[in-house]
Amino acid sequence: MLRIALPNKGALSEAAGRMLVEAGYRQRRVTKDLTATDSANRVQFFYLRPRDIATYVASGDLDLGITGRDLLVDSGADAEELLALGFGASTFRYAGRPGTTVEDLAGSRIATSFPGIVERDLRAAGRTASVIRLDGAVENAVSLGVADVVADVVETGATLRQAGLEVFGEPIMASEAVLIRRTGADDDPRVQPVLRRLQGVLVARSYVMLAYDVRAESMERAVSLTPGIESPTVSPLHREGWVAVQSMTPRAEVHRIMDELYAIGARGILVTDILACRI
Ligand SMILES: Nc1ncnc2c1ncn2[C@@H]1O[C@H](COP(=O)(O)OP(=O)(O)OP(=O)(O)O)[C@@H](O)[C@H]1O
Ligand SMILES: O=P(O)(O)OC[C@H]1O[C@H](OP(=O)(O)OP(=O)(O)O)[C@H](O)[C@@H]1O
Ligand SMILES: [Mg+2]
Asked: What is the value of ipTM here, to two decimals?
């Protein structure tokens, strides 16, 4: 059986489970379950702390894992990203009292739950600072006098605002949930179907199926608006001089494209969700 590590709780847990269900895998019944076996697909899932997942995968005890890119980098484990999964996006940033700049980093005390990322960033910039490792709620460290600045995950920025802190400098990294495997692992034929299914979910989420009727003379213009992934399907309509077009279209652009299609005479424009796909 293929063994896959998933976050047992936290920001990535629910969305990771949802993505696997959309990919056709059985998931745990209750959030307390530590494992789940999907016999039909010959996959076993292990629910672990997201921070530990790269370690399990790097050791070879588990074949694949889903964790945050920031957690992977912070761990320094011998694991690599196979696929970015499009959820759990965040940035990792320095923050301090208003007016703090990157010039203040040298010689400062930096509180963080991600010392691996911070030390790597300081090294790259040739700065020396003292990194104070905290378990969480690091934004409090400045007002409590434990640190001069923090380096932490920022999603909406609400937590920083509440603590009276402001980000400074460029983002240290951009993170999202990623599928990982051991660095340089031999190609495993059991991994390919998982990868294809997850890629299928990503495409199904970001595309819709667009169908419309248009006069044959406007077809080329219409098709240039909806080129699809390979090429759109064009079929004759019973009504003389009209064709029906079907094409996968980026979800984010579909309303603009519908307006433009309507303007060139397309009618009966329908949008449907794609439940699953293999491209
Ligand atoms: N709003 C968010 N807060 C925390 N982590 C987030 C957020 N959005 C995305 N993430 C990502 O989730 C991962 C952290 O997950 P983890 O489960 O360790 O943290 P958590 O949700 O803060 O849970 P915990 O209660 O253990 O602190 C990181 O990869 C981080 O980039
Ligand atoms: O930018 P925001 O939307 O405010 O989200 C980012 C905050 O959320 C996380 O904290 P969490 O709630 O996980 O607490 P923790 O610090 O104890 O992990 C993270 O560590 C930041 O503090
Ligand atoms: Mg947290």
From this structure: 0.95
